[in-house]
Amino acid sequence: MATFLISRLLGLLRDVAIGAQFGTSGSYDAYVAAFRIPDIIYTLIAGGILVSAFVPTFTDYLARDDRPGAWRMASTVINLVTLILIAAAVIAVLLAGPIVRYLLAPGFSPEKQQLTIQLMQLMLVPPIIFGISGVVMGILYAHQSFWLPGLAPSMYNLGIIAGALLLAPTLGVFGLAIGAIIGALLHLLVQIPGLIKVKARYTARLAVRDPGVQEVMRLMLPRLFGVAVVQLNFLVETSLASLLSTGAVSALNYAWRVMLTPQAVVAQSVATAAFPTFADQYSRGQLPQLRSSLAATIRSILFIAIPASIGLLVLCKPIIQLVFQRGQFTEESTVLVAAALGAYSLGLIGHSGVEILVRAFYALHDTKTPVLLGILSLIINLIISLSLINVLGVTGLALANTIAALVEMVLLIVMIRKRLGGLDDRRLALSALKTTIAAVVMGVAVWGFLGVAANTGVIVRAFGGIAIGVGAFFVIAWLLRSEELRGVLGVVGRRIGPRTTQHETRDA
User: How many CB atoms neighbour CB 242 within 10 A?
Assistant: First the structure.
């Protein structure tokens, strides 16, 4: 969680640097649009798909103490992924023109489309590097090593920050693309010491019939279709936003990234750490332990995600003003991004829950169920987007995403309950109810404070609102005797209190 927090803070700093240089300008619209195709290539071929299939398979080898077989399988996966990514990048370079003009950004002007084409061709380099780095990350996860993989995204952010601050003043938006390439290299290199520590062994082989490779492919293929639908949805969202006013694509991107900051720090970090444990418990046939681990994780995630989402909803404008409004990021940009962030905010609950729940299905070697439910929720997303874009514009696109994420989370909970025989339902429901009550009271308190402090500076409104919100939430949660709050206070007490006995540590 510490490394994810560092990464997200650097990601926020990256967006601040970009915002000051480009705001919600047409050139940044082009950059965001150009990023879509490289991101799709990486996500479909490698990315989360590969890691979710690779970690359980690699963990099975380690559980059987077959390390030579594990390294042979890992080497083959690295080689295959690299070759496929290179081939996909070459095809995308050749077809960049038609993709941008007719699919990605039909609403852009010809000059803006040409800029998007050039940026896209340059940004097809990072996915190849990320493919290798993703497998390395999976290897370290399987060894319960999280520090270096957790720092890797920070290295990527540092590369883009360097591009924004050092290269963009002379190279314009192309400086960001070059910074992305530098960041991808740093993303890989920072993990190399971890490979050395676990005594990794690489061989230049393409044994596609290796049982482990076949298992990885078997687990990847069902999810491939689901992720393809997700990426298609992002493409449609970008395409629809290109038909709106200049800055719409940029505004959605800024708001999405702000919403993802708490989601990454909490949900992604916990899910990343929990996934190998879920996989190991399933491999050893420990379903009661898996059920208990998952239920406790969901309760903890909701305890943070629910108040965070309401906090974003109430404080969206002061937060955007404080973080971004400087340089080329004007008051008009703030209004546009804050509207999108307000619509995205409650989706934080859904996205955080989905992050944990899909990991549980992957640990069960079930990639089909999350795919099918994901397709259903994304169809809902698309329908609502098309219905609201002419009425609410950017806000409608963000609101559609939020509704779809909440639907997907609910459906995943229903299905995982059937697989595991429940999730300690009464305890989970009571915990969620107490957290929601405390969060709503918090939201009302912050809303009242913003009304009183309407004529004060943005620093007072933002930090004052956060302080009042945190205080109100914890007071109400304490009065409601929230189990999760007692757990947090217990952990803090153990960290700062006297040394515990071995018996107490085991019970804890």
Answer: 22
Report how far residue 74's alpha carbon sits from residue 185's, in angstroms, rounded to the nearest whole number.
20
Cα 389 to Cα 270, 346, 393, 399, 425: the distances in Å are 34, 19, 4, 10, 38
CA atoms within 13 A of residue 243's CA, in its CB half-sphere: 13
Residue with tokens 């514009």: 393
Angle at 220 between CA 125 and CA 214, to 5 degrees: 105
Place of tokens 């404070």: 449
Residue recorded with tokens 């963009």: 168
Q: How many CB atoms lie within 10 A of CB 234?
A: 17
In whole angstroms, what is the distance from residue 352 CA to residue 302 CA?
A: 8
Instruction: Give me the average pLDDT of each 10-residue run along the chain (508 residues).
Output: 78 88 88 88 70 78 83 87 91 93 87 93 93 88 83 91 93 93 94 89 81 78 68 78 81 86 74 76 78 85 90 92 86 90 91 86 80 84 88 89 92 88 83 93 94 89 92 92 74 49 33
Helix (H/G/I), strand (E/B), else coil: 106: coil
Half-sphere exposure of 259 (CA within 13 A, CB side): 32
Identify the burial level of 124 via C-beta atoms within 10 angstroms of its C-beta, where 0-12 means exposed, 13-18 middle and 19 or more buried. Answer: buried
Which amino acid is it at 377?
A: S
